[in-house]
Amino acid sequence: MNILNLGYRSTNYYALDIKNGKLLIDCGWPGMFPEFLAVFKRKGVAPEEIRYILVTHFHMDHAGAVQELKERGAKLILMESQIGFPQAMADFLRPKNLGFTEISEGGNLLLKFSESREFLAGLGLSGEIIPTPGHSDDHVTLILDEGLAFTGDLPPRFLVTEKDHVTKESWDRIYRHKIIKIFPAHGNGQFNPEEA
Ligand SMILES: [Zn+2]
To answer: How far is the CA of 29 from the centre of ligand 1 (A)?
Structure first.
């Protein structure tokens, strides 16, 4: 799997090769699209190559540039547990005047977790998208069968307290799959499960 990190400002945005383009996991800061485009240019990727965007959760450092990329042809994959969250994010950001372009409902692909494996297969990826609440209720994780997990802002496993059942169960759900590498949304990129 060819994985490109299009990250900036301490946030990782992973672009995976799919049929006829790329799938982007998480998508830029609000009001900073020129900075994002500069990263694309530096990494030799045209924004039009992004066919789909999966947002691990709708916080501003993960979904800040979704609409700008939709306007360049990408489709947002909205998981069933994420319905209403783009609107909540827009409500939160509106008074802050950060130059956020609100995410329209048009051009989104609504997907059930149970359909994710079949959908990904259509893109040439073998894996699934699973719900991983904890950091936020709408948080999801992409798992590829080759053992890669894109875990967004889920706190590292060793930091999760016994009392935090929701996050613990999310990690348990992830580790029901064979995982050899974890790709978090912040920090130095990938690490091995033993360190999680
Ligand atoms: Zn974050």
So the answer is: 10
Spacing, Cα 139 to ligand 1 middle (Å):
11
Query: How far away, in angstroms, is 61 Cα from ligand 1 center?
Result: 5
Instruction: Output the CATH code of domain 3-195.
Output: 3.60.15.10
Tell me what pLDDT residue 190 has. 66
Going edge to edge, which strands form the sheet with 148-152? Answer: 127-131, 140-144, 148-152, 181-184
Tell me what pLDDT residue 188 has.
Answer: 76
Strand partners, 8: 11
Give the distance (Å) from ligand 1 centre to CA of residue 58. 9
Q: What is the pLDDT of residues 128-185, one digit of tens each?
A: 999 999 999 999 999 999 999 999 999 988 889 989 999 999 999 999 999 999 999 9
